[in-house]
Amino acid sequence: MLRNVSLLRSARAPPSPQRWRSYAASSKRGGDATEEELDAARKWLAQLDPDTIPRSICDISFSRSSGPGGQNVNKYAAMPRAPRLEVVASKATVRIPTSSILPLLPPLLRPHILASRYHAAKSSELVIQADDSRKQTENVNSAFRRLHELITDAGRQAVPGETSPEQTKRVADLQKAEAARRRKMKEFQSKKKAARRGGGRDD
C-alpha cells in the first residue's frame, strides 16, 4: 500500500527585474503621499506584468491536486509505478515572505496587501495556490497571475486616478471660493466685535 505523501519540488526562479529592486529606494514611509509619489506609483503599476514579478523571492512547491483532473491524479498515485510523477504533484503553492515583497511595492499598496486573504499573519508571508490545470507550469503561472491581480487591486484601492486639468482647476476654484468665504466671515466677526466694544463705551 502506497503512502499518501505530497511531492514537493523547488522551481527555478528567473532573476528579478531591475525596476522591482529600485522602487523602494525612491519611496518614503509614512505621511500623506505627494502628487509626485502618486504619479510614480501609477507608472510603476502601469509597467507591472505577471511575468516580471521576481520569482527569486518566492518559494514554489507542488502537491497533489484536488481541482480539475484530481481523480486522474489519484489514479496515477495508486499505481505501483506512476508513469508521470509530475502529474501527481500538479497543485502549485507560491509563498512570498512579506519582508521580501513589501519593500518592492509602492508604500501606499502595502496595507492592502497585508489585509488580503492571501496574507498568512502567523508566518508573515503571502500564500497563493493554484490547481486549475494538471500541468505544474500552468498552475505556477496561474498563481503568479493571482499575485498580479492582488497587487493591481491594491493599486486601484490605494492610488487615485490621475486628475485632469479641468478637475484641477475646479478644485482650485473651490478652494479659492472657500478662502474668500472665510475671509468675509472673519471680517464680519471682527466688525461685530468692534461694534460691541463701541456700544459699551457709549454707555
Automatic annotation (TrEMBL):
Amino acid composition bias (Basic and acidic residues), ranges on this chain: 167-190
Biased composition (Basic residues): 191-203
Cellular compartments per GO CC: mitochondrial large ribosomal subunit
Stretches the record annotates as Disordered: 1-36, 154-203
A Pfam family hit: RF-1
Prokaryotic-type class I peptide chain release factors domain sequence ranges: 52-193
InterPro entries named in the record: Mito_Release_Factor_mL62, Pep_chain_release_fac_I
Biological process annotations from GO: mitochondrial translational termination
Any GO molecular function: translation release factor activity, codon nonspecific
Domain of life: Eukaryota
Protein name (database record): Prokaryotic-type class I peptide chain release factors domain-containing protein
